[in-house]
Amino acid sequence: MTMPHASAEAEVVAVARQARACSRALRLLPGAQKNACLLAFGSALQDAADSILRAARDDAAHARAHGAPTYVVQALALNRADLEGMSRLAATLAGLPEPVGRIESTWIRPNGLKIEKTRVPLGVVALLAEYDVGAVIDALLLCAKAGDAVALLAGPLANRTCTAIVRALAAAALPAQVSAGLVYLVPGHGEVARCALVRQRELVDVAIPVGSAAWVEAISSAALVPVLGQGCRRRHVYVDEDADLALALTVVADVVTADPVGDGPDVILVHRAVAPRVVPAVAEMLLEKTLPFTADAGAAKLLAGVHLAVAAGAVGGVHLALVDGVDAAAAVIAEQGSGYSDAILTNDRAVAARFAALVDSACVYLNASPRFTDGGQFGMGAQVTVGTGRLHARGPLGIDELTTCKYVVTGKGQVLG
Hints:
Shape: globular
Strand content: 15-25%
CATH topology of the largest domain: Aldehyde Dehydrogenase, Chain A, domain 1
Radius of gyration: 24 Å
CATH superfamily of the largest domain: Aldehyde Dehydrogenase, Chain A, domain 1
Strand order of the largest sheet: 9-10-8-7-11-12
Number of strands: 15
Distance between the termini: 57 Å
Low-confidence stretches: 309-316
CATH class of the largest domain: Alpha Beta
């Protein structure tokens, strides 16, 4: 077993070296040339639509045949409209301001040194995709705009489609200044290849896993390079005693009817003072939509005679729970939350401000649905994923989050000694 593993790791290293060489060249590529690459990528996706869609159908059929959840099959099943939208995204990103080289701040020290905080590419991004092939294309386009080279590793569910996408981009009519492609497909899609890729500290600058919480956790556990990504996407919504109940039910309905992603139940926390009105209304809505839900002891008492539609092993679903106020709601979120997106519904500004201060999630919503957590919805063009960690980038990861900063210091012979 040693030799096959050693051979697989050597192939991964070879691809990572190619990506590293490309990343150095990209640092010198003007913004206009990167934009030209984006436009070429958009055209290439259209030109190769038949082969990409054929691969997507094969991947979706394979996943369905092996019992993959519906949301996984849907994420694999690209259609022509999806590719047309991604081609438009390439043009949109090409029209956005150039991030690399932007001076974030400048100051001059008493000794005359001029210090400029300047935005630069991350370098080599290891993109590890489990099944969401649409997110893969978004990521590749965003990295091109940010000036990052990509080493793409596709999991077994998305391998055919990712291979077709990389082939299409490799055939793009890139500007003469671009001597090599920007995207490199890592051979293999098993655990050996995944672990080898995210352990290349000299060749890979950051790993971005895109997929389920289990996928992200497995990659994060094996990685020796920094990891940007989200794990569980479970959301909490707290309905305060001063909430507009009509507004609250509208937002709750938006959250609970979202397509499940297998990350456990979304949690609706309700202030005890308004629970007699809110809990039965939410339960009735869930029953009408035949959505599975559970309730804690306090909420269950308010649903005497109501059948709790709890499906064994149900994906997603909703959990109803009562709390005594904003501090209690924040404590539940701190203990059970995913750090992803959580919301409060209240007309009390002080309570809203306290919730925003206490809840330490990547995105906190005041009187709005937490389903807006997306780079496109935030006006960032698109996103790779949503960062729920504390370092480098948090929330939707767009173009700026795929860059970092360095300090350029200019002097006139100053010395420290």
